[in-house]
Amino acid sequence: MDRGNVIAQLGNFTPLVWVMLLGNFFVRATYYMVWPFLSVLLYQKYDLSATEVGLLLTTSAVVSVLFGFYTGNLADRYGRFKLLYVAVLVGVFAFSALAFADSLWSFCFAVFLATIPRSLWDAPSKAVLSDELKDDKDRELALHMLYFLVNVGAALGPLYGLWAGLNGEQFSFIYTAISYLGLCIALLLMHRSRAANIAEVSSSATPPNFFSWLGILKKDTAFLLVLAANLLIYFVFAQGDSSLIQYLARAEVPELATLVSLLIVTNSAVIVLFQFPLLHVMRHWSIQTRLYCGGAILVVSQILMALNPVDYFTGWIVCVFVLSVSEAILFSNINVHIDRLAPEHLKASYFGAAGLCSLGFALAPLLGGVVLDVGSGPVLFIVTSVISMAALLIYHIAQSTPRNHTTCAIHS
After folding, report:
1. Rounded distance, CA 284 to CA 359, Å?
2. What CDD domains has UniProt attached to this entry (predicted)?
3. What does the pLDDT read at residue 111?
4. Which end of the chain is more exposed for a tag (fewer CB within 10 A), N or C?
């Protein structure tokens, strides 16, 4: 992607586009501000067992994913902005509740609410980006920037959470609530400045109700295949955050804390430094070719992990480097792929359905742990290698599967 072209494309971004991009950064940052440290807070303050903490966090995450599937359709039917306003207002209430909760049940309720703004904001905000940016290349750049900012938010969120939640200052969560209120004001100003000229849907077609939408989704075999492949991809990537660490810990690898820190830094650095150079290299490639390339690199990373001696320090860094290159290619292009698959009047519904793929992240620690218990680390990574290859095969089948005329054609 040429620098001059990028600058010209950025000039096409309206103020509302920037609010959506920065809003996604903020929502993700606040989500990760809470999530990594809640288990510590629940244990230290409320003396919950590991099982009780795990049940609360897992249930909240799964419900949030399923809720996002439903709210995507609501955004198409009743308007993107209504759902965005609900997201930020729930954020204000949730983080205020975290600041003032003085009982276990009120705190648990606040924890659950704190996961909701992410699922409410995600699909409608991506749909607004599509509404605002009619050119495919502009939308593609916006979705790549969205993924970049989400990663930055995921990295910075825990740092703020460390200060706000773990230093005994529960009241500090109120600052996040105030920030959500600021996001609400920015959204209101941008919405009004458009004088309601932005169309809530880009087509004259009437968005279907939820059950009719399920009927449409059921018939869109190609899209369902893409969702299945994405879920498998997410499941494999999640092993690097959970099962890999378990494997290294059980093997009592020397200097484990240092190794884990280096793996996290390697992953973040590759995403930040390589995402846009890779986009430049692949600028003339079809989305499908990019997905095949990223998937093939993912397979290589899993094979390297299966072959790497458990105590080979440098080898694990190389493995995560290769895994992160695959992530930089796949994750942002998955969003672009979904955008091109979705009909204009069902953008939020399709992005909401795509959120179901996050169940791959939710299921990964459990299923990965089972494989580690009954097998070993190399067995786990052989399994994930096969799963990665299966995802590539499903992408290929989806590409060759005809789509119903009521949905948009697959764009390459």
Report:
1. 32
2. MFS_MdtH_MDR_like (cd17329)
3. 81
4. C
Q: Looking at residue 309, what DSSP letter applies?
A: -
Q: Which helix (H) or strand (E) holds 288?
A: helix 287-307
Which positions ≥6 away from 152 have C-beta within 8 Å? Answer: 25, 29, 272
Residues of the chain with CATH 1.20.1250.20: 1-200, 211-402
What per-residue confidence (pLDDT) applies to 227? 93
Q: How far apart are CA 251 and CA 271, in angstroms?
A: 28
CATH topology of domain 1-200: Growth Hormone; Chain: A; (1.20.1250)
Residue position matching structure tokens 């949730």: 94
In angstroms, the CA 159 to CA 263 distance is: 17
Buried b (16+ CB within 10 A) or exposed e, 167-203: eeebebbbebbebbbebbebbeebbeeeeeebebbee
With a cut of 50, which residues of the chain have pLDDT below it?
195-204, 405, 407-412
Which of 217, 320, 340, 339 shows the shortest CA–CA distance to 271? 320
Q: Of the candidates 172, 144, 222, which has an alpha carbon nearest to the alpha carbon of residue 404?
A: 222
Give Cβ neighbours of residue 342 (< 8 Å, ≥ 6 apart): 130, 349, 350, 351, 408
Q: pTM of the full predicted structure?
A: 0.78
Q: Which CATH class is domain 211-402?
A: mainly alpha
- Percentage helix, strand, coil for the chain under 3-state DSSP, each rounded to 5: 85, 0, 15
Report the C-alpha gap between 89 and 38 in whole angstroms.
Answer: 21
Residue from 275, 263, 361, 254 nearest 305 by CA:
263
CB 111 within 8 Å of CB 64: no
